[in-house]
């Protein structure tokens, strides 16, 4: 290959220049060897017709190359946008309940001497949760039964951690355990219920959870009581969840929150797509 042709772009430019020059050489040949009157740029003359058709073909070829180039650029932009979205989604997932793991480890340290048997159970459940968070949490979709198992482990760890009576109910109505959902989808709503409700209440705390799923819709409701007199700072949990829902489900979800007296309700509805 000639050294000065370094890229495909250079090769394409040279090819176009050479191709466009061919009719000029034909005309020049006719003028030099056939006389000036031998070349008439009319559709009736053979040479003129060839030149016109040649340039028309060249124009169509150029348009084809341009369309192909444009499609390539669109695909590159789309791929970069998808990569950026995936990176943002992974970053948001990484923010899910990190402080919970640290708090549980601190709690585990206290149980080692007090009750080694409970400490062992804590270690196993915490290991299952961390494994799910690190591996399944990086996937686009997981089966809903894995999400339910993750929530059950989370609830059991909290029951061991607080060592007080908590009215916890987890009602399930799932038609298909293998239906797919976004991983770590429900945990933020449950985490908020414990963080802003159970932690602040000394007695009569409750967390009621309902998960219903069929072939068309998933609904997830979390109700908890809280101490109305305590000022709650607006955290990033719900903002994180809404952003993830926007990325994965776009206009196919609805998330509402409501406070009534000392009861807070969060309701998430997803249309199956």
Number of domain modules: 2
Structural class: alpha+beta
Summarize the helix and strand pattern as letters.
Answer: HHHHEHEEHEEHEE
Number of strands: 7
Strand order of the largest sheet: 2-4-5-7-6
CATH topology of the largest domain: Heat Shock Protein 90
Radius of gyration: 34 Å
What is the overall number of helices? 7
Distance between the termini: 52 Å
CATH superfamily of the largest domain: Histidine kinase-like ATPase, C-terminal domain
Give start-end ranges of low-pLDDT stretches.
1-6
Descriptive overview:
- With 273 residues, this protein is of the alpha+beta class.
- The protein folds into 2 domains: 8-92; 140-271, Heat Shock Protein 90, CATH 3.30.565.10.
- It has helices at 8-34, 46-94, 98-114, 116-134, 144-162, 187-198, 237-249; strands at 142-143, 166-174, 180-181, 205-213, 217-225, 253-260, 263-271.
- The strands form 2 sheets. Strands 2-4-5-7-6 form a 5-stranded mixed beta sheet, covered by helices on one side.
- A hairpin with a 2-residue loop joins β6 and β7 (263-271).
- α2 runs antiparallel to α7 (237-249) and α3 (98-114) packs antiparallel against α4.
- The longest helix has 49 residues, at 46-94.
- Mean pLDDT is 76; it is low at 1-6.
């Amino acid at each position: 290959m000639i050294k000065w042709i370094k890229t495909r772009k250079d090769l394409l430019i040279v090819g176009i220049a050479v191709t466009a020059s061919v009719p000029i050489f034909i005309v020049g040949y006719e003028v030099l060897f056939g006389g000036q009157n031998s070349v008439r740029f009319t559709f009736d003359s053979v040479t003129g017709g060839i030149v016109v058709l040649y340039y028309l073909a060249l124009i169509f070829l150029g348009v084809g190359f341009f369309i192909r180039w444009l499609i390539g650029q669109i695909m590159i932009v789309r791929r970069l946008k998808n990569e950026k979205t995936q990176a943002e989604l992974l970053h948001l997932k990484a923010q899910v309940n990190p402080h919970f793991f640290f708090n549980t480890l601190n709690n585990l340290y206290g149980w080692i001497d007090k009750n080694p048997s409970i400490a062992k159970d804590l270690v196993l459940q915490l290991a299952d949760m961390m494994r799910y968070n690190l591996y399944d949490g990086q996937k686009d979709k997981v089966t809903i039964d894995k999400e339910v198992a993750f929530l059950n482990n989370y609830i059991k760890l909290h029951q061991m951690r607080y060592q007080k009576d908590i009215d916890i109910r987890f009602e399930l109505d799932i038609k298909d355990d293998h239906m797919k959902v976004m991983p770590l989808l429900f945990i933020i709503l449950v985490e908020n219920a414990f963080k802003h409700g159970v932690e602040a209440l000394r007695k009569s705390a409750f967390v009621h959870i309902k998960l219903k799923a069929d072939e068309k819709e998933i609904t997830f409701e979390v109700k908890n009581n809280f101490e109305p007199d305590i000022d709650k700072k607006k955290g990033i949990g719900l903002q994180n969840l809404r952003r993830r829902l926007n990325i994965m489900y776009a206009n196919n979800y609805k998330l509402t929150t409501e406070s009534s007296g000392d009861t807070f309700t969060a309701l998430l509805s997803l249309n199956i797509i």
